[in-house]
Amino acid sequence: MLQLSFTRKHRPPGGKRATLAELRNGEQAVLERLDLPEDNARRLMELGFLPGNIVSAAHSAPSGDPRVFRVDGSEVALRRETARHMKIRVTD
Amino acid sequence: MSDCHDCHVNSVIAPPPRVRSLARKTVALVGPPNSGKSTLFNVLTGLRQKVANFPGVTVEHRTGFLRLDNGREIDLVDLPGVYSLDPRSEDERITRDALSGSIEGIPRPDAVLLILDSTNLGRHLMLAASVLGLGIPTMVILNMADDLHKRGGSVDTQQLASQLDAPVVLISAAKRQGIETIRNYLEGQFAVPRPVELPILQDVPRCRQWSAKLGLRAKYRPPAPPIWTRRLDRVFLHPVAGPLVFLAVVILVFQTIFSGARPLMDGVESLVSISGTWIANQLPDVWWRDLLKEGVWGGVGSVLVFLPQILLLFLFIGLLEDSGYLARAALIADRTMARVGLQGKSFIPLLSAYACAVPAIMATRTIENKRDRIATILIAPFMTCSARLPVYTLIIAAFLPDHPILGRFLGTQAAAMLGLYLLGFLAAVLTARLLKSSILKSDRTPFVLEMPPYRWPTWRFLALRLLDRAHVFLRRAGTVILGVAIALWIMAHLPLKEGKAPPIEESVAGTLGRVVEPAIRPLGFNWKIGIGLLTSLAAREVIVGTLGTIYGIEGDAVDGEASKGLQKALQRDLTPAGGLALLVFFAFAMQCMSTIAVVRRETGGWKWPAVQFAYMTGLAYVSAFAAFHLF
Ligand SMILES: Nc1nc2c(ncn2[C@@H]2O[C@H](COP(=O)(O)OP(=O)(O)OP(=O)(O)O)[C@@H](O)[C@H]2O)c(=O)[nH]1
Ligand SMILES: [Mg+2]
Questions:
Q1: Nearest chain B residue to A39, by CA
Q2: pTM for this structure?
């Protein structure tokens, strides 16, 4: 499902993993790793963005950024610049 | 004067008398943001702490008193919400400090009421690990039971209690269900928790595993997703419909404030003028009859007229805050904020600055990044606060005839008002841009904002809040505005010449006005406006009262209804270009003692308020000059 939405622009160069920023409204994936400074990563983890959790993308602001993500029972809005550093493993 | 329209947000109730009876206990309310701590605080103490549906409403500790049935006295402390006891922002620091007893006036709590949202228990239970680890007697309160049950969730509180070795209760603070159990707990002997096995707090994944295990043992069944929230978001966050709805809401608000409030304002106006005439007729012809009629009725009365309008504005803001729409608005606005170097979180304080800058500046405590926070504080007073509303309304009504633009939806006057709000917003945004690309440059902290589910506003609280607003407004009219009106009336009648008052130009007040006149003449203002500008340093709307008093003395408003007379009198004193200049001046100038005081307190010194005052006044002067000459 996710694959379909990858335009050339968004497809990460071979070998690299996808990130949360590439999820479109309605898609979901398993979070794998947060490549963020310790402090920011902890706050995100406290909000539910824990490796292994399923994250699904929801609505965004009109421009597509920031986007709301559903994770661990709540909805949290993140900017693309943050989501870009959150690696995911795609599921269907 | 330290009180503003939203004063109760920053008022800390004086700590109770120092001598504590043995029975007196301090109990703290702790929990994640938006879990209902302040709601419970209000229910238990009967106070009116601000409650709204977005995270980060409470940014300061507030103590309330309650006496239990068995005579025990409790100081209940409401605290800002926290995700963990490892603070990231100013408000979260307050909670940690209160729990360790290092805030002056608040002893280390004898017990903690830990409020968790039962509809999101898995994640919220993580906080229980850190709080129970403090070794303070703790009752775990699972709030929002109504919502949990409605959406088909459930939890076994007894199992959870035995797992945590702490009392656990499922309540609904908003519906006042389960409150008795809490009162019973507070009456009893606080049991120090036996240490249960807790995860290492620094390890968030471990903490989450711990809480998941607890949830399983307590047979926690999470509720179904909130259907209505999803449905509403499909509209409010729709790429096209969303912004349109936003725009429609804004236009509706302005038109209602402008024309919907009219009949009520006319009502107040006739009441003021009828009572003024009646009183004047009852009194003998003494000097203080004129003081009453011109000073008090002319001055205070012309401000009172705006009460309905201001209440209407607060009603709208309350609806936006309480429904949960505010968080969505912050999301939509984040792009704009990012462009000027700020983040969407700054948008929430800025929105509340439409009511009053004072609570808005306090609300910046939720912004983690220090420099972002200062920048937000510096731009907040540009947002059009409710004290500007009377000034804008008066001047617009005096100089701009009302024509329909969009049929009945929008008239020219409401559109002009909208324009002034936009002007303030633009000034704020451009200033932010300037600051963030120069002295307040900083790395960006990520924008992280939890979206609360939509909820029905609690009508009771909304009504009480409006009452509070009315109370604050009336108190201000009865203190600052009344004081200024009386002082001004007296100054306008001195020095006596052969026992008679001089013409107003030659009075003390007139002289003061004429001293500043050369400075403001380039803006198109005469000495009367000058007096108004001087008195409006105390608070913006004072200028309306001041002009009411001056024109009252001049006899312009004698028979007419106060503000109609004011409008006519203004037309004689200002050209339309001067009127525009005055509007622009009020849009930019920082005429508010309370704001200066709160900026000093929040930034810890005089530097920032001084910079801000100079910048805003300078900008106001230059722009008003330009407006007067270019018009
Ligand atoms: N359905 C439901 N809503 C509730 C209940 N208790 C509180 N609320 C709502 O939850 C929202 C948050 O309430 P607050 O009391 O402001 O929450 P808080 O924990 O003080 O929030 P912060 O000050 O931001 O930490 C408000 O919209 C309340 O009306 C409840 O028992 N049931
Ligand atoms: Mg609160």
A1: B88
A2: 0.86
